[in-house]
Amino acid sequence: MKRRWLRITQVVLLIYVLLGIALHYFQDKLLFHPVKLPENHSFNFSQPFKEINLRVNAAKSISIIQFTVPDSACKGVVLYFHGNKNNIERYAGYAGYFTKNNYEVWMIDYPGFGKSTGDRTEQALYHDAKLFYELARSRFSKDSIVIYGKSIGTGVASYLASVRDARQLILETPFTNMYSLMANYAFMYPVSWISKYHLPTDDYLEHVKVPVTIIHGEKDEIIPFKFSRRLKAKYPSINLVSIEKGKHNDLDEYPEFHNTIKAQLSK
Predict the structure, then answer these.
(1) Where would a tag sit more exposed on the chain, N or C end, judged by fewer CB atoms within 10 A?
(2) What pTM was estimated for this model as a whole?
(3) Are 24 and 50 contained in the same domain?
């Protein structure tokens, strides 16, 4: 009997270790689901846009789409950091929510997404975000720039707002940090040892000096609403807009979402 239990224990430990190793080495595939596009791919969007391919070096370029509004009506620009799936084409439909309020929307693809190339690391995401911001500053004043993050993009957006000036920061379905989010799914592992990404939104918000608005669905099945409650508890000045029946990818189906965007861009 003792030998049997010893063997079962050994098998369980082996499975535990193997799953932990897999979680470490394959987490990029778990966290990011990019769709690459060929360099000659032609974008086709339903509203005016400009395509920018920012060459960083021989091995790295950044793909940016600028959804434009007439110069006579333009109030500023929204720097949009999207979620973890596909590429800009998946998120282009959101641009109209901002352009109808007379803000240009610039979307950036992370390394390996769309036409963007280069290695994807946390530091690479931050580096690209700062280049993205500098491109915007060449046309817009800092008080005309709104930084917006959706899902995994909230970590990058929060970092940028902590090191660069802007008008405001808007976070859609944020997490406190990647360690906590991973622990929500893999609570049995020491995720801070395993994770290649930290993205500490909660720490970055301490250094954000502009108004912060969070929009989060209370029925979010991917990034639970509890993370936004924690951010609000830590930083009471945050404007937390909860959508009672909202899930992770359907917030734009609710009037609260559109009313919030309109209200923030009208300030």
Answers:
(1) N
(2) 0.91
(3) no
